[in-house]
Amino acid sequence: MKKQVLLIEDDDALRKSLAQILDLEGITVIQANGFTQARHTIRANFAGVILSDIRMPQKDGFDVLSYVQSVDTELPVVMLTGEADVPMALRAMKEGAYDFLEKPCASTTLLDVLTRALHHRALVTHTRQIEQQINRNDTAAMNFPGPSQVTRDLRSNLRHIAPQPLHVHLFGEAGSGKKLAAHTIHSLSPDRDVFITFNLENPFEALEIPSGPANVSLKNLDVISPDTQDKILELLNNHDLRLITSSVQSVEQLKAAGFSKTLLSALDPVEINVPSLAQRKKDLPVLFESLVRQTCRSLNTHMPQIPQSIYAEVIAKNWEGNQPALRNFATTVAVGLNVHKPQMEEMPLADQMDTFERLVLSETLKNNNGKAGAAAVALGLPRKTFYDRLARYDLRPKDFKTH
């Protein structure tokens, strides 16, 4: 565990005394005489904790606390004051302080509080490192980015089902990403290296399966012929196969449409709904940007600056073609063609205003690297009002941090 403390104290003698106490305990101390000097050290990846006096000239300890909260809500701040002020202590804790101590403070008490804070910070940073490593190798996160609840549920379902020895049926609108979901399941499968895809709309496509365990994707299950059904049942009896079927229809809809129950009974698949883009409105900005980046990487070109007006149009449009339509528009933007803005769908005024407000909040957070305090200042909003707006649109500052 890295033992590091940013000590903010305007009293030079007291600061040096506290630094000496911490140094004797093997804690690395970064000294600052106030907010201005300290702010350059306060970063989201700061491995230590902060020990700050409250009463300081110009910007006080609450300014420090507010800034820290805007940078990283999980960065512990221990507050020091020379007065036994209960309301001040309550305010400090309410605004996110890790702990509150009175000066003069016994060395054992100070060290105990800082040790607990350092252990807490070490756990946070370790967890983040693990999450970053998982995300870098998480096909579900890469293939289905976005903060919406339906997409979070989809990612969770794909991760959960991938290692299970169960057949899967993916259903959803055309272009919603069922093929991508099937590839995601395969990439997260720990014991099946072979992946084969058959489009059942093509009656002449031969169903040839190699030996050994395999994932087999059957697209457009709703148009499967009786002969092909028999062939699949035969393959299931003679090979170690896990079928990942897909259709615009759910299993119940297939049964209602007269689909043969023999194959469905043999498969008894787990169903996963792949949501349309109309259900993923909150994902559109990040999904669109991801598609533009993918195109730029494949063409070895620079990522263009995307104007807010384009993001606004992307959010407002009802992408009936789903991902292929959005991908096509992203390609147009990536290659720098003159963009014909997608036509705005007719929306009630209140919905249009909500869309615009969410876009402005998202862009401001993005421009300020997810720092809520800085974003609130940029928009001229009180912090409480700003956080209320974020909660309304399910926006989280940490989702907009780039480093």
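[next item in queue]
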Amino acid sequence: MSHFDNETSPSRFAYILAGGKSSRFGSSKALVSTADVPQIQRLAQELAADSWQCVAVSQNAYEFQSLGLRTVVDHEPDQGPVAGILAGLNDLRSEAQSRSVWPWALFIPCDLWNWDARWTEGLRPPDIASCSGKIASETVLLVHFRAQRFSPFPCLIHRDALPMLHQSWDRGCRSMRQLFEELAPASLSRELSTEYLPESFNTLEELKRLQRERS
């Protein structure tokens, strides 16, 4: 049973990063139709079924309003996923001021093909029993999966990492590889079975391949 399968559990937030230009894809990856609904809506539905409250991160606060998906604005436009993570963690901190919120935020890109509930358990932080938001200095701030190639998503980031992320941003950190290097002393990587590795698409050809393989 999941740690969150009861009514007293704190709300947990998943942030779908959708602020990219999708230049290689040619149109919005977030809004491309997959399984007869916009990609980001399908992801949000799968996350909601796994007890995540979904928030989109993009350059336009009203971009996904018609889909019923709350959107927060990137920390800065056209600056990559780190800007989206900063926006998500700031939103998480704001939400925690008015209700019980899990101190970890889940981050995924809008081009992730699907959400697998096994990843929730796979990313479980070592201090999951404590939901107060207070963590010991030796506890991790980043949890992610190990893979043969660099694969930063999905990942969990603790809201206490926010000051460190702001400092990294001010030093010019804009890529996920840089961010992971900055957080390496406070990170935990988990093994993931090859049978359910996360897959994403950057081009229309990659999307069509996934549709053929998963149909």
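[queue empty]
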